[in-house]
Amino acid sequence: MKSIHALYLVHLLCFSSVVASDTHAEIPKKLKVNTSPEVEYQTIDGFGASDAWRAQFVGKNWPIEKRNRIADLLFSQEDDAEGNTKGIGLSIWRFYLSAGTTEQGESSDIGNPWRRGECFLNEDGTYEWSKHQGQRFFLQAAKGRGVEKFLAFTNAPPVYLSNNGKGYAAKGDIHLNIKPGNMDDYADYMVEVIEHFNQNGIEFHYLSPINEPQWNWDGPGQEGTPALNEEIYALVRYLSHKLSTRGLKTKIVIGEAGTIGHACIDMNTIGMPGDGRDDQARFFFSEDSPFYIGSLPNVEKTISAHSYHSVWPLDKQVEYRSMVRKALNEANPELGYWMSEYCILQKNDEIVSGGGRDLTMKTALYVARIIHNDLTLCNAKSWQWWTAITQCDYKDGLVYLDDGSQGETGKMGGHVKSLQHDGMVRDSKLLWVLGNYSRFIRPGMVRIESSFDKEQSIEDGLLVSAYKDSKKEYMVYVFTNLSQQEKRVCIGLNREVETYITDKQNNLKRISQYLDNISIPKRSVVTVINQE
Q1: Percentage of the chain with pLDDT > 70?
Q2: Final residue before a domain boundary, out of 379, 406, 438
Q3: Do 85 and 232 belong together in one domain?
């Protein structure tokens, strides 16, 4: 009877009409949040971003106080002396093992020095561990600020092992850019790096050896290589054997598919060429496949993909993700899914395109919707932004750099040589919106069933997802209000809880509210911590 009475009180609190006595203006009617903690979905592996390209200069050359500020913004889980949130507490940090185009300089053909990268491996087969100095600064800064997991990834083999001596592939070649007989050496190189860092205090939990193999990467814009599924299979077998033989715990994560479609379907079925680089979930993880890798040592039973080219229009964003979940279940019900890279590329009617830096809630909310759908429709166990730091006039970063020459902005781009040594550090609303997830939904938490009593619009409605920490017995809710009006929600009985608001005025601002009447400001993302 006590339980029934409590539920009746929640019903009354959530649906009672509230009128402001002084103005007689009606407060928005509360939406009831229905939560079923016993209905569990994916276990969260973490939220992350990569150090690719930009960290090499910033971490090596910039003034130490600015480096530390950037590290705090990305990694800190602490508050400052005034009680303001210092950072977004990323739980995964991606470390880029580049191919050695920096050592080649202009002869690499990659004109933008920010897109070249050093390589620990020398041409004579020796290793020079003093390289990657800027990236290693942020690696240590991440560890010191409590980041739980580290991932090493490559875009291309070291230039000394590549088929054409370059960090990019030959025109029209869709094969892994590596000399015949050198795949074993490529695997040796990656495992040698993993073991070196392991012996020096940094354990890489994951190794991602292939990136977007569906694209040909046959131009000098950046390092990259295509690869057939069968070539990836051969490389994974080498890596699995070498990691296990050396007693390393690092897990191999594969896919990093250029689109979510390539990760889970035969592209020929939708009128696009597959050419041996698609249908990866079935190819690698269906137990009926002759290329099944799920039983190999050190292989994570997860397929990763990038959310590019699948987010607009909005009805297709939902449709594609439902399709992904269905295809993954058919390939292997035990297979996990990562959204391991995203920034804005696709043209759309909401924020136009990826071109043009935007630090406002407009871009942040556009991405917040994608995060929500990747987590709730694809059951993504991890969500990772492309690059943590950017000096580009583009929507591809969390922390932005410019030379400060124009007051609130300044010159940006690879041609601004001064940015290799100093500049202005600017946070973005996208950084803080990602923090509404990353700071509070920690590795090991489980997404649970949560919905509203009234259906919401994916275009301009209110979105909710919920997560539980069984060990500490608390739940986290993340609300995204895409509308121009304040929303109010009822989660439970009248009890004070902490909420964290990101909107035009606030960055994860902590405000105490009551569970039966949570305010979600217009155009905001709000995290609610329901601590029993």
Answers
A1: 95
A2: 438
A3: yes
| Same domain flag for 27 and 115 | no
Q: What is the CATH number of the domain that holds 23?
A: 2.60.40.1180
User: Six-digit token pair at 62?
Assistant: 């910039």
Across the chain, what does the average pLDDT equal? 94
Residue 183 has a CB neighbour count (10 Å cut-off) of 19
Identify the pLDDT of residue 81: 85
The model's pLDDT over 266-288, given as tens digits with 9 standing for 90+, comes to 988 888 777 999 999 999 999 99
Mapping DSSP to helix (H, G, I), strand (E, B) and coil, where does residue 307 land? coil
Same domain, 415 and 520: no
Range of the domain at 525: 2-42+448-531
Task: Give the list of residues 6+ apart from residue 130 with CB closer than 8 angstroms, or none.
Answer: none
State whether the Cα torsion 170-175-180-184 is positive or negative. Answer: positive
Q: Out of 376-385, 465-474, 478-487, which region has the weakest mean confidence (pLDDT)?
A: 465-474
The answer to whether the Cα torsion of 238, 239, 240, 245 is positive or negative is positive
One-character DSSP codes across 137-199 = HHHHHHHHTT--EEEEE-SS--TTTSSSSSSSPPTT--S-S--TT-HHHHHHHHHHHHHHHHH
pLDDT at 27 over 90: no
Residues 281, 423 within the same domain: yes
Identity of the amino acid at 180: P
Q: What is the pLDDT of residues 216-228, one digit of tens each?
A: 999 999 999 999 9
Q: What is the DSSP string of 366-413?
A: HHHHHHHHHHHTS--SEEEEEESEE-SSBS--SEEEE--TBTTB---S
